[in-house]
Amino acid sequence: VKVKIPFGNKYLDAIFSVPEKKSTYGVILTHGAGGDMNFPHLKSLAAYLASHGVLCLRFTCKGLNVAYRTKAFKTVVEYLKLSDDYKLYGVFLAGRSMGSRAAASLIRQLSQNDDDDDDFIRGLICLSYPLHRPKLQSKLRDEDLLFIRCPVLFVSGSADEMCEKQLLEGVASKMKAPKKIHWIDKANHGMAVKGRTTDDVMEEINAQVFSWLRENVELEHK
Where does the record place the KANL3/Tex30 alpha/beta hydrolase-like domain (predicted)? Predict the structure, then answer.
């Protein structure tokens, strides 16, 4: 289901992947610095979640400014929260690369608002979290992660040039939130692995994301 979500004086393009049965939880998903919501990995994950009973709303927000992307993410969360068509108990925020930074930044912002007393946001899913720029391991983008309290899942490639394995494990050990890291063996930042098809890698990622979601909410399992 295609929708346009009002954002300032323009609109964000978004697509709902709707399960057959009414869903109680949803995932909001966005892309990295390049591309849009039709990035193959996002489409694959959205379809997988919907076929397993989880509503997925993915959206496009162009713009390379994390603050701007965070604002867009907030707009989408509020849109879904007030939606009459889909009454959800809670959502998980998910993003690929820069999209996951925006999601983390939003969760930190919301957790610092004293008036934010609801638990609509249940967790964070970071696909290829860009912990540092390539070859710039000294400057970590970990400040939002250290403030987050809700459960966090990282799915990263063990050969990701923007997320060195030991560095992410070090950040995770300092996090206060319940967290899990799933390493895709030999995958780079784009989740490409020599000798494996994209579909094969996506199957691994999708299954990991879904089983983690299931651990974190009692999803009505068919």
Answer: 27-211
